[in-house]
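Hi P.,

Sorry for the delay on this. The queue was packed all week, but I finally got your sequence through. Input first:
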Amino acid sequence: MTEQSKVRVRFAPSPSGDLHVGNIRTALYDWAYARHTGGTFVFRIEDTDQARVTDEYIAAAVESMRWLGLDWDEGPDVGGPYAPYRQSQRLPLYQEWAQRFLDSGHAYRCYESPAEAEARVARQKAAKQRPDYDGHSRNLTADQRAAYEAEGRKPVVRFRMPEGTTTFTDLIRGEVSFENHLVPDFVLMRADGSPLYTLAVAVDDVLMKITHVVRGEDLLSSTPRQLAVYRAMGLSDAEFPVFAHLPFVMGQDNSKLSKRHGAVTVGQFRTDGYLPEAMCNYLALLGWSLGDGDREEFDLAEMAREFTLERVNRSPARFDPKKLDSINSAWIRRLAPDDLAGRLVPFLQQAGLVADPPTEEQARLLTGGAPLVQGRMVRLAEVVGMLGFLFTDEIVIEPDAAAILDEGARAVLDAALKALEQLDGFATADIEAALRAALIDGLGLKPKNAFGALRVALTGRRVSPPLFESMELLGRERSLERLRSCAARVG
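Then the structure:
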């Protein structure tokens, strides 16, 4: 890559499921580097394995990127000068380059059958050798090739890995070297004419003029193959993209993050009620820091201003769910009340508590209720338990709350009802004054004992949003009806 080249980075997932934490961190770093340098962010879909990569998964990947706020300059739904951006729509290009490599001698047809490959691997394992391709078809004569074809064998196309050493400078890991004899000749194209990853990714990187390849450390071993293909395409070393391999994301047990560590996909985090701002904020910290003291909360704009690949840590990052929860709750507290209320709607709708769209009364309750729980909420999905009582008249008392309705609860409920029935208004201050006078001054109760039974009667829970504000939201008739119903049940 020349120094004058404008930065062009690409995020190129192969969506065989929902995007996971590692995918999104890669996309985030690619996006931030493009925005920091004023470059171009390319979103490319690697879908040549159409048995695993479906249109549904691709649509989900696009939706996840948009939800996170990671916009792209070229790619699906946007287009660009190097379209199409789905590899399944670029197959003639890969076939053309495979033929070029055959013509130039950089590749050859391999006639090894699946049974022969299986037998070779068995022999190598028995001899305690690495199960790599042994180069049997590398130097076949014309007669040998003709004999195989006469048998009806359909060959794959293999790249002829050169001798020597492949050395490159990784922006995160420094100088990296691979001995080429440890990199066996690899398949570029299957017998059915479909390309493999190493062919398609290299061709697309070159034709789309990608300058920086930012990707996970798990792909580090494929880099010598990719560089060899670049060179076979006619690029000089100075024209190669610059590589930056991101560290692994590990679970709390120091093993590579996987499903057994809990939610690891974007869709699951979204369902659980994490904010996209918090997800981007936390994932950015998995290998990078703002460089501003100990400050850990920042938005995408701040990240883009400060992001450099040189500050990415080469050590593995550990995914800490508790840290994510902390950052998510901090972001929830930063939201404007109306914004928070809007984001809570889908969770209440999923629980069948709110209509689509919400009624005027439901909107009023949510607008009033959201600020009451904003400081207590860790994830948006918690709204169902915290505010669900506002949207239903079928109060179910949770088992751990039922114990509060002991023998003394009837007297508390009766006294509360008598005090509240005499109120002219039903504002928070009036409710609080009446109940304190009746229960604390009148019955001599401590606040915990005075208001616990009321809380259970009104919400069904031991813990709820502030009691008096909740009663004002419920209104006089709904509040009194719940107290009467509970009093009758206790009696």
